[in-house]
Amino acid sequence: MAYSYADEHRLAAPDLAKVGEVIGQLVNDLG
């Protein structure tokens, strides 16, 4: 899984494209 705890805590200045990608991954994982 590309998204990790470390990645979450690096988002000091949120990259909306990355956030959208992460949300998409979570949606896919939840099916």
Task: Write up this protein.
By secondary structure, the protein is mostly helical. The protein has one domain. The chain is 68% helix and 0% strand. It has two helices and no strands. The longest helix is centred in the C-terminal third of the chain and has 15 residues, at 16-30. The model has no long low-confidence stretch (mean pLDDT 77).
Pick out its properties:
2 helices, 31 residues, single chain, mainly alpha, flat
- How would the global form be characterised? flat
Instruction: Assign a percent range to the helix content.
Output: 55-70%
Question: Regions with pLDDT < 50 over 5+ consecutive residues?
Answer: none
Q: In percent terms, what proportion of residues is strand?
A: under 5%
Largest sheet properties: none
Helix/strand order, N-terminal first: HH
**Total strand segments:** 0
Radius of gyration: 10 Å
Please tell me the overall pLDDT. Answer: 77
- Note the total helix count: 2
How many domains, as an integer?
1
Give the N-to-C terminal Cα separation: 15 Å
What structural class do helix, strand and pairing data support? mainly alpha
Q: Topology, please?
A:
Blueprint: H1 5-10, H2 16-30
